Amino acid sequence: MISGRSGRIRTCDPCVPNAVLYRAEPHSDKRPAYSVGLDAPQAAGMRNFVPVKTGLKTLILPAGHAAAEAAARRLAAGGLVAFPTETVYGLGADAANATAIAHLYAAKGRPAFNPLIAHVAELAAAQAIGRFDDRALRLAEAFWPGPLTLVVPKTEGCPVADLATAGLDTVAIRVPAHPVAQAILRAFGGAVVAPSANISGHVSPTLASHVESDLAGRIDLIVDGGPVEVGVESTIVGCLNAPMLLRPGGLSRERIEAVLGAALVRPPAEADSDDSQPLAPGMLASHYAPRAHVRLDAHDVAPGEALLAFGSARLPGLDAATAVMNLSLAADLDEAAANLFGYLRALDAKRPRAIAVMAIPEEGLGEAINDRLRRAAVAR
Ligand code: TXA
Ligand code: MG
To answer: Distance (Å, rounded) from C-alpha 207 to C-alpha 227?
Structure first.
């Protein structure tokens, strides 16, 4: 279902009754929806903000052989390189270089206790980093390359720097499918840690221009591979004991459970708050946040609100909305996931009183969409 999506979704106008909005379609919007964001810091992301030397010249290259080679050189030199994966754009650093990783945390303003995903080109490389039991192996073989991250115990000589795993004895690993990510990983040869390429707490980037608006002047290179396909981050499964769903994402729970022949274990509820030690430590309650308040499960639109619609129902108050974007008129959850972060950025840029969001079914990629929306809606 992920591979079945066409580029058409991102290039056609969203079918919403608002002409102004058509022009704001974010996948063709070359102007950033966000500045660096320091004028309205997101509480979750900025609380632990580390000052970072800005003023770096950020090179932007179109994807291709030359860009992959340039990216590999920058990574080897300790630089920070943003590149597309099929889920969202990632900000890469050499996983074995603690100094580069420190720069990465600073560039994002990311809390240092929040560990990173190590990206490699294939399963064999992953097995040099982490220990895979039978079930982890089955999942890797079924879904890699693809939008799945596995958390497994580190190997003895695991080359990933402690700073990247935040001192844990486990490591998160992913083999991305995107050809540009694959080309960069193969040209570089080692593991690359890559969080989403946004300022910590912001909405994840699905276009190179989103990366530019958040991180220009803070990173060395952005490789522009156009819009991403999936649109929400990878699904994270912990494979320590019984496989546990640590973060819903671009691979649906249903598909994973079909391969395992068993239900994924749910993390304990207390693992999902700011003040406990979370199992997937990045899953802070408030995250993925636009500036505007987000109002979930909307059955109407209040004056001054923007509407993030789903499906073909017309809500009362629609005509007075500041802006309207429809995640998927056809109520297709894959299409909605691909549009989610870009549309949140675009609606937020209209400075509405709030963003009202219609209900999304909790199935397939709807689980990941609702997870991100709930985090965006947490009062800050
Ligand atoms: O799709 C994705 O996964 C993207 C692309 C760039 O690959 N990356 C991404 O990374 O979303 P990030 O850093 O935004 O999210 C990584 C998540 C965080 O929630 C972090 O806490 C969790 O992975 N994580 C990393 N290492 C972990 C570990 N050892 N145990 C549990 N969770 C871990
Ligand atoms: Mg992120």
So the answer is: 5
